[in-house]
Every structure is written in structure tokens, then in C-alpha cells.
Amino acid sequence: MSAASYEEFKNRLAETVKSLRIAKKRRVKLSSSSFYSEKVRLALAGLRKSFLALQRDYPPERYAKVAFQIATIEPLLQRMITSYPTHPNDLLQLTNEIAFKLHSDLAAEIENTEAVTPFSSPPFIPNNIIEDRHHVLKKVLWEINRCYDAACYNSCAAMIRRLTESLIIEAFEHHNIQDKIKKDGDYLDFSALIRMATTESRLGLTRNTKRILPDLKFFGDLGVHNRKALVRKDDLDKLHHAIRSAIEELANSI
Questions:
Q1: Which residues are CB-contacts of 187 (< 8 A; sequence separation ≥ 6)?
Q2: The pLDDT value given to residue 151
Q3: Which fold has domain 127-251?
Q4: Contact 60, 68 (CB under 8 A)
Q5: CATH 1.20.120 given to domain 4-114
Q6: Which candidate, 100, 6, 85, 89, places its Cα nearest to that of 42?
């Protein structure tokens, strides 16, 4: 994870401090509509925006220690926003507290995070399940693991759906029975592919895999199409072993 959002927040904080110091020096009332009071207001807006980006880039489920330090800054930033317009001295005191946390505890945790090698923990699905000769499928598997590692769970579910659908088609083609899953020369939709795969003896799918395939479609569709719900980490974790087993079974059929 890049520390770009951390650097952006640090720069925005410096800009806010600069604007506040100028307003203080010129004895500007922040409640006025002067040029300098407007600069402070815009600086605070930019600071808030960069803070939201920082929270987005370091979700607690993936970066617990960094997220904790970010959470300690949020009340100070909120006090700045809710107390505006007030005397610049009051806001400068809050920026000093934020800067101390930013350059000490938060910086240390982000440095530790950046030092960790990606995929230092086991991937969500073992990389060797798909053979290297299946280049496209191998790349999709890589994206599944990358999305999970980055806490992009909707994307992860969508890529699992794509890999599963592709593996079913590849399995039928491998056994030279692809006409069973075609209509008017086109492959059937995913729901029909699942029905055909679960009844095709030459694929030899186990009961558990037959049971999990509809769930992979459900969460894949949820991640792509649903406007009011999200795929969450717990959704994938509960299905983890079944997903891994189903993909390996299908991969063994190609």
C-alpha cells in the first residue's frame, strides 16, 4: 500500500497551518468573508478530504495498527472543523497536536507497513492450483489474491465468479463435451453452467463443490451488480475452504 495519502494529508496539514498563521498575523476574523478567512476554510476542507483518503487506504481489517493511529487523529480534526470559525490560535493548537501524532506514532506504523512484503501471509487461494500454461486463468487467480489482500472484497468475489465460470467451460472443452453447455452456438449463462457442471459425471465434482457453486455466483453477482449491499470479509472467510476446494477440483478437470 502506497503512503501517498499519508504524504497528502501531511502536506494539507502544512498548508492549513500556513493559512492559520497568516490569518493570525493579519488579525483576521475567520467569521468574516475576507480573502484569508476563505483560504483557511478551503484549507480545512482539503485537510478533511485528504483524511478520508487516508482512512480509505488503510482499512482496519487490513491495517489494524495504522487504522488505530488514524482513529486517534479524527477527534482532533473534527474539533477543528466544528469549532471553525474561531480564533486562529485555537485551531493552531489543534494542528500542533495532529502534527505530533502524524509525525510520530502514525508515521512509525506506516513505515512498518511499507516494510512488509506483499503476500507475506498465505494467499487466499494457493497460486499453484492453476498451472502456468493457463496464462489467463493464472492471472485471474493472482487478481483474486491481490484483491483479498487489499481488502477489495467485492472485486475479489467478482473475480472468483469469473474464474469459476471459466473453469467450468474449460472443463467441458477439455472433455470435448462443450456442446452440452451451448445453445445456438453460445455458451449458457452461469446459472445453467452450474446446473450442467453439477450433473456431469465426467467432471466428478464432490458434493461440497456442487453445494458451493451457487454461493460463488451469488457473491460474485452481489459484488458487481447490487447497489445496496457489499461483499464483506466475513462472507469470503466463511466460504474460504469450500472456495479453495471447488476451484482446485475444477482446475484438475482442465
A1: 169, 178, 181, 193
A2: 87
A3: Four Helix Bundle (Hemerythrin (Met), subunit A) (1.20.120)
A4: yes
A5: yes
A6: 85
